[in-house]
Amino acid sequence: MAASKMVIASLTHCRPLTCAATATASYPARLVPHPPELIKWVRREGGFVHQAVKISQDGTNSFGLIASQAIPKGSELIVLPDHIPLKFGPLDFEVADGATSALVNLAQKVPEELWAMKLGLKLLQERAKIGSFWWPYISNLPETYSVPIFFPGEDIKNLQYAPLLHQVNKRCRFLLDFEKEVRLTLENLKPNDHPYGGQHVDASSLGWAMSAVSSRAFRLFGKKLPDGTHIDVPMMLPLIDMCNHSFNPNAKILQEQDPGNAKMLIKVVTEEPIKEEDHLLLNYGCLNNDLLLLDYGFVIPSNPYDCIELKYDGALLDAASMAAGVASPNFSSAAPWQQQILSQLNLDRENSTLKVTIGGEELIEGRLLAALRVLLTTDKEAVQKHDLDTLKSLSANAPLGIANEIAAFRTIIALCVIALEHFPTKIMDDESLLKQGVSASTELAIQFRIQKKSVIIDTMRDLTRRVKSLLSKNTTTAQTQG
Ligand SMILES: C[S@@+](CC[C@H](N)C(=O)[O-])C[C@H]1O[C@@H](n2cnc3c(N)ncnc32)[C@H](O)[C@@H]1O
């Protein structure tokens, strides 16, 4: 700890919250240079850690968990008793003291989509508190995060993808506004009621806390409600959150009732036999690269859940259809019966959900596919023979005929070309920039946009294959008929 920070801490009887949060280090340092040993702390607190589980430093993900010897399938790796996870919900304190009430007040001002900030307020309180129960855990947290709210402005632009730029700007704006809100709420509190020991909490500290939570918290069952149900509560799980992510994980999290009392135990259990030196990996969720980058600060190449977002827009679809050689498309002048279907698809008005996706598991979002199929035909009776689910399904074999299916796919291919042209650089340019060597945040931004462009190209390839196959079917049918 720097001398100046020690002086502040000893004057205020709390730990300083300042952090130089930038995304420059590929191995983010921990909050203190030599934090206590996490595994020992978990065991001391009554938790269980399998003797073969070790913390390892790895080339790409900084820290992770690794097996020092083979472990059979179904083994318990880590068990945390109920008092170890860090939570912040209305059921997690019996009586709210002044400081907790202040935090509850602040948490109410955080929009639901930024839930990580709510728990972040609590994390910051524990980070500031000398003698916090969670200090052995918190001191092991990274000092900086590679999420885009900490990117230099140039690298936010380098993402080149409007929906993500929008989200990043929204989060940055929120943090700046929330800094003011926190100051106003806390400025007149009595010292004992101040959750941060009287320290000013700036946007950078709030961003640190929000990123620590978004990149490490798991949403699990909270306390049992009187009606026997559980609410979904985000919690930070010491040691368990040292597991890195994979879409093909070898371990999973389970919650079980503690046989000794009514409280819940949180366990990590192996899902397959683990070999010596294997990394212990959890699946953080079926997330696209936008969410992985925003919340966790990394992207997955060839992510099967990655997709691009477009706005459903009749004029754009007319242009795409014409570019694809489809005769007189009428996306912006649909017949009343077609309008009716658009309305069922929630694609008919400005205030509908006009965001549609291409790529990912579905390849073409069902609502977009159905809209294209329906607007590219004049055969109302043929449409009425199918339910909406069939019209939305890519695996339904050309429900409105082969010519209609080809026109729909060609329109999407043209839409992909338009989307690709919106990126200022080509994948080749991006790859040569990466070869030249760039900062960690520039590299992440470039990797992100390469992946987005790859999603578009892969979708075009897939649809082109489908068009070819439909064309050949068309020829075969014509020959058979002839
Ligand atoms: C829950 S923590 C895992 C432990 C973390 N690696 C550490 O050093 O404390 C999640 C963070 O680990 C890193 N991470 C996890 N899985 C990753 C992966 N598959 N690729 C790249 N980074 C990953 C990211 O920085 C992410 O925000």
UniProtKB/TrEMBL annotation:
Gene Ontology BP annotations: methylation
Keyword Transferase listed: yes
Matches recorded under Gene3D superfamilies: Rubisco LSMT, substrate-binding domain, set domain protein methyltransferase, domain 1
SMART domains: SET (SM00317)
Keyword field contains Transferase: yes
One Gene Ontology molecular-function label: protein-lysine N-methyltransferase activity
Top-rank lineage group of the source organism: Eukaryota
PROSITE patterns according to UniProt: SET
Keywords: Methyltransferase, S-adenosyl-L-methionine, Transferase
Domain SET: 51-285
Protein name: SET domain-containing protein
Organism: Jatropha curcas
